[in-house]
Design goal:
The chain is mainly α. The chain is about 85% helix and about 0% strand. It has helices at about 1-10, 15-50, 55-60, 65-94.
């Protein structure tokens, strides 16, 4: 395992370290956003179940929800890109 890590991360100043750190930060941020959005979506469903139409409209009409969903999708795409770059670097070593 240690030899594999040495091949993937040749030095602490290599671009691979920056890619892994960037990917880690993006994944943590995306996870936090997913948890928050799940809570918001749960509140919307609660308003539906309680048949409170005004509360439902109030919760759905928040413009930040659409923006956050777009940001979440962009983060997911960026995480995929960085993951692919790291995987290709790993496969070139093997």
């Amino acid at each position: 395992m240690w030899k594999l890590v040495q091949h993937v991360i040749p030095s602490w100043t290599s671009p691979e370290v920056k890619q892994i750190a960037f990917l880690s930060v993006l994944l943590i941020f995306r996870t936090m956003m997913s948890i928050w959005l799940a809570d918001v979506n749960g509140r919307i469903v609660k308003a539906i179940v309680e048949k409170d139409f005004q509360l439902f409209l109030k919760r759905v009409s928040r413009p930040c929800l659409n923006v956050l969903n777009i940001i979440k999708a962009a983060l997911a795409a960026k995480c995929d890109d960085v993951s692919l770059i790291t995987a290709f670097n790993l496969m070139s070593v093997l």
